Amino acid sequence: MSRLLVLFAAAAVLALLILPAAMPSSQFIMTIAIAKGFAALGVALLLRGGLISIGHAMYFAIGAYATAFMMKFGVLADLALLLIGSTLVTAVCGLVFGTFLVRFRAIFFAMLNLAVSMVLFALLSKLYGLTGGTDGMRVATPAVFGLELDKAAFDDILYYVCVGLLVAIGLLIRAYLKSPLGYALMSIHTNEIRLEYLGVSAWSVTLIAYTISAALAGLGGAMAALTIGHVLPEYAYWTESGHLVLTAVLGGIGGVAGPFIGSVFLEAVHVLAVDVAADAWNMILGAALLAVIFFLPHGLHGLLEKRAEPRKSQGVVE
Amino acid sequence: MLQSLLPLLIDGLANAALIFFVAVGLTLVFSVLRILNVAHGSFYSIGAYGAATLGLWLVSAGANPWLSYPALLLSAVFVAALFGPAIERTLIRWTYGKGEAVQILVTFGLFLILEDLQRMVFGVQSLYQDTPMTLLGITQIGNVVYLNYQILLIVLAVLVLVGLRLLIKHTRMGRLLAAVVADREVSEAMGIDTDRMYMIAFSIGVFLAALGGALATPTTGVAPGLGAETMVLAFAVAAIGGLGQIEGAAIASVIVATAKVLAVYFVPALDSVAPYLVMLLVLMVRPQGLFGVAETRRV
Amino acid sequence: MNKPVLRAEGLELSFSGVKAADNVNLEVREGEFLAIIGSNGSGKTTFLNMCTGYLRPESGKVYLGDAAITGMAPRRIARRGIARAFQIPQLFTDQTLLTNVMLAIASRRGIFQGLRRLDRTAYIDEAHELLALFSLEDHAETIAGTLPEGLRKLADITLALALNPRLLLLDEPTSGVSALERFTLMEKLMAALKARQMTALFVEHDMEIVTRYADRVVVWDAGRIIAEGDPKQVLRDPQVIERVVGAV
Questions:
Q1: Best exposed site among A154, A197, B3, B204 by fewest CB in 10 Å?
Q2: How large is the ipTM?
Q3: Chain A residues lying within 8 Å of C73, measured CB to CB
């Protein structure tokens, strides 16, 4: 990593840490942005392997509902346990669906993910007795290491936990991408045949990536459920998946920071544009997606990276 | 037994007909352009909204109710003329040779835009315009009752299937299309205007989707979110039949509709999931679909 | 006679009625450099595809040593010790050449290594050594997809060598390489094989190369083996001249 990028990253983390003090109103939005950033990171991970999931919001929803259920039944109802538990539940779902889905590539992969997400959306909306149907479920404020807190104090802690996880998991994912397995994932995109002829199972490589990406989205979903205090079937809706794909592409898939940059940027735009564009949000997303693909194939992160590490940046468009 | 099976059969085939229009458009566009248009379902719902709006306007204007049939067709033609060439010429054309990832993202972006566009133009309430269905009335044979409109749908679907086949086999344009499908590079070298073929095929695809939507309004109405559901359903059918296979799409429509009807009658909870289950089953056994040809890369 | 590394018994395969393999029986012996010649479409590449699991023969068996490997997935056959260089180079086109080779080394060692970096010193050093075999060191940092055809061919062979296989299959190693550089390439390849005591089989169109380097040659025609033996003798066989050599 070039010195410039380290500097950028350090400055960004510092800014995140002092932001709530400087601008208290931004804390909620930033928590959401980080939560969705995790999900978008999951999408970006798959994009590195050339795989587009337009159903990934389902894992965000699974993480969120897992948290809601654990709170409802009082199982593992403590912040750390909730985050870990929800992430694991989602990872298992990703592993199970993945065993089937990662056999497919390109449009089949995209559409089958969409299909599974639509089934999940239908189930969440219809199984009223279990999931509260379209009303969703309330998520109470959990304890933090046994400490009962009021919502405001809990949200403060949650925010810093999210920032901490962003740094820690960001570094882990970075290491994963630099490991042989991470490079093998990128090779799925360029030459699966060569990979198999090197004795590597493309199926295992993609399944691992898929499971990690589901877990990331699940963690994001759990964070969102805790800060919003409510979960809805809409979390799994395909427009949310579209949002995640745009976030990943907008931020750029070349680095771990990209999806988070994209997420913060989009949330900010959403807040600013909510008055003018409440009914046109999907249209804005779609137009932005086209604009990014046409004019900014390496995403916002690519702008930074291009100067720092010109040869290694990776875009969706070659 | 027969008496209880006949309505089931007609229900299933009418359902299959509606799915077939969209799925065959999707598969046709794929076979010529090698692009799976994720926004294909939007043309279905736009066609549906167009037909319902036009139909309701005709009713309120006190026009002859029989005019509601040409209104269905007019809506589809209008949608195809408005969107087909324009979108192919700009967005879709830009993605040729750019890799599937870009094609998925671009058509998905288009999909998002079209969804909101519909909300802006047609609002968020559902529209229902059943004149074409009620006008044809019902037929009763013994205890068996069915809608004549359902028969019309089935006939139209067969006509479209046969028409497409004849178009491809026996017209100059169809043969050119077939040549492009078989080998686009050779076709181009032979002087075939492939750009024009792409535009024509794409527009026919849009027309078929819009026609499906228009024909569906009298029976099911139209509501926001229809585009996405239709897209996934059409993909399921096209994938089961084998992407790019016209007859495959026809047979897959019947299979999916049968599964759906059986689910409605026997396991209502699985009603909306049934098509996907069939798709998952088929793709597990034959990833290229029932009638698809597996492509092996030469090494 | 040395014992066979690879043994094919009665392989049969046809594509829409055309026989691509018609009762193929073939042995590759330990330590030899075996050439396969034959006109285009005679089934040479199909044979490589069947040996490496890319295609499954309709009948017949393939043995690696004593183990039957018929119909195994390419990755399992690769792990058992057959590496392949392709007629059309198969590289990770958006990565540097160095990364390509390091990934091959990592694959040999087992790709599941937790979060350890791919570009660690041991791998970098070994990759440079491998690149040096075909004088590719200067291109280590070049994106593989941007290399000229001839160099991509060499890179492809390097990836196969990085697996340190028991048997190396080379599909037309000198095609796409300029006439001037062919012999240099072959000298380097032979040196690398000798140093590793590696058995190899190669498909070749250039008869001069076959005569000069192959220990033994097998002649292919319409999915069948029509002659095999010492290159100098086989290439004088009138039937071979008529069916294959003349046609090239």
A1: B3
A2: 0.92
A3: 196
